[in-house]
């Protein structure tokens, strides 16, 4: 009954390492261990309550037997005072029997009280150990959660700076550079085409002016 949390003590030792090796969730497992410890405490409390009830029952019987011893003695005195020696003798005989019963019950009561006191002390020790384990559990849970968070962050940072991500950025950079080069080339072609068109337009414009100038000279007789 009172194993002082043997299961939990074992787990905190070798089984904790095995648990971590199996990649079990430490937070969930610690909560499970605490529930098991709480169940042990409830069982111990029930056993202590039962033992205390047995102690009180024996104490009550001892008191009743001792009261009967005193009663039979008083009755023996009354019988003698009344001149009834036979009745006094029977009262004293029953007194002797009640006294033996009281002594036997008292021995049982003393043992029951010692057992109850021992169980109380063990229960107090269990509760004290449980509180210590609870504090340790909270600390371990915080450490486990912190470690998991750091692991996730490190993995995320590793992925950000990883070869695959870096190669992806390099490919995108090359695409952007290619797009920019294509845009500049298209602008150059457009500028080139625009200049050529402008020259032809200017040529056509100059031809019109020259014709008009020749006609005007002819009319003025300057040819």
UniProtKB/TrEMBL annotation:
Residues 130-223 are annotated as: Disordered. Residues 168-197 have a biased composition (Basic and acidic residues). InterPro entries: PspA_VIPP1. Belongs to the PspA/Vipp/IM30 family. This is Phage shock protein A (PspA) family protein. It comes from Litchfieldia salsa.
